[in-house]
Specification:
The structure is a single chain. This protein has about 180 residues and is mostly helical. The chain has eight helices and no strands. Helix 1 (about 10-25) crosses helix 3 and helix 1 packs across helix 4. The radius of gyration is 16 Å and the shape is globular. The termini are far apart.
């Protein structure tokens, strides 16, 4: 068993590469044009949450370094959300409340999506319909659920060493 003393912390550029790829995937026009995700601040946040959560799921299932990567990506996500709130003009006093809501959304969606991914039923589609599509358009939610399951499987096949070097890939959403 490895001691935490011998496990190197991930380099900031590795975290930056991973988070950059997550955000780039979340911003693909296919999600907004083809899947019908609302092209709004809330819709874009949902897609960043979704992809960050997918990476977090993968990080929990890997070697010890993956835990550090998962935490690093989460920390970068929080820094990015904080910076975006400030850029949108949210005042210093209101940022913590908004960050608390984002944190609650992250953990709430994480629990709902994990449960949906583990189940055989429509729980994932229902969670996506509620969170991403505001309770409407079940066929879009089902399509996004199919993509999410495929992305989860694709991430599971990626080697820890590749991820630890900042190399991550997601499936092309247009194939779903």
């Amino acid at each position: 068993m490895k001691s935490g003393l011998f496990c190197r912390a991930p380099k900031p550029d590795t975290i930056g590469a991973l988070y950059g790829a997550i955000v780039a995937q979340a911003r693909l026009p296919a999600f907004y044009r083809s899947f019908g995700v609302p092209d709004t601040v809330a819709g874009r946040l949902e897609m960043i949450l979704l992809h960050t959560l997918l990476f977090s799921r993968r990080a929990r299932s890997g070697a010890e370094i993956m835990g550090a990567l998962g935490q690093g990506v989460f920390d970068r996500f929080c820094d990015d959300m904080d910076a975006n709130l400030r850029e949108m003009g949210i005042g210093d006093l209101a940022v913590p409340k908004h960050m608390q809501r984002i944190g609650e959304a992250f953990y709430g969606r994480g629990a709902a999506y994990d449960a949906g991914m583990a189940g055989d039923g429509d729980a994932l589609g229902e969670a996506l319909m509620r969170n991403v599509f505001d309770g409407a358009v079940p066929e879009r939610a089902a399509r996004l659920a199919t993509y999410m399951k495929a992305a989860d499987a694709a991430l599971a096949r990626q080697h820890d060493t590749d991820l630890a070097q900042g190399r991550i890939s997601f499936p092309d959403p247009l194939t779903f």
